[in-house]
Specification:
The structure holds two protein chains of two kinds. Chain A is of the alpha/beta class. Chain A has three helices and five strands. Chain A has one domain: Transcription Regulator spoIIAA. Classes of the chains: A alpha/beta, B alpha+beta.
Chain lengths: ~110, ~150
Amino acid sequence: MTGNEFTVAQERSEDGIVLVLQGELDMTTAPVVEAAVQEVADEGATGVTFDLESVGFIDSSGLRSLLQARERFGERNDSITLRSPQRATRRLLEVAGVLDHFTIDTKD
Amino acid sequence: MLGTEDTATTGDGDRTVAAPIGGPITLGFPARPEPVRLARLVSAAVAGSVDATIDDIEDLRIAVGEACAILVGHASPTGRVDITIEAGPDAIGFQCGPRRRHPTRPPGGRPGTDGVGVAGRRRRAASGRCGRPAELPVAGRLGGAVGAGGG
């Protein structure tokens, strides 16, 4: 299998809107995330949680989509929560120097 | 050192065998975004064939993905990208670039100018190496390398 089967599911919880991502977030799939963020922003959301537990890889395009979401919701560090990021995702955020741009929820 | 251990013991006591590939792996693919994932998968497989750490593998995946994405972004619609990945004793390296084609030369005329030319392709080639962070952090570079297999 060489295709990147990527899905975005929207859930609502007491913490707000959660976008559950599954697959690899790269230049081919980042537009899907951007469209989902646009949708929740149009609904009046002031922030969003990305569930990244099932995201095994993020490249710079994927990172850009997360930063764009933060920008859309006012560039506050608490506007975007990244739930259960995998080690590779955390490493990318650290290397890029943007780990503190997001609220990290490790969901122990 | 990378690639010197044929066996390793997992935390559960099971023994796993790393099987060094024994030479460079070259992959060619259409210059489109979708196959870049395949290049990342191959790079991870090459890194996994030696005793690379998880961070080494992730660093390589990122470096390969980013380098290929740059090339794809600048390629013609019919272009192709070649990438060669090799696990050496101390590092895992890769080179990638647009596939070279013979320049078109009309009979009695000058070479065609319908493409970016070899010089342009060389400028767009990329290479990088991954090793143990303390020894050799990811060091992708753009601008000086020739295409895959070309140097």
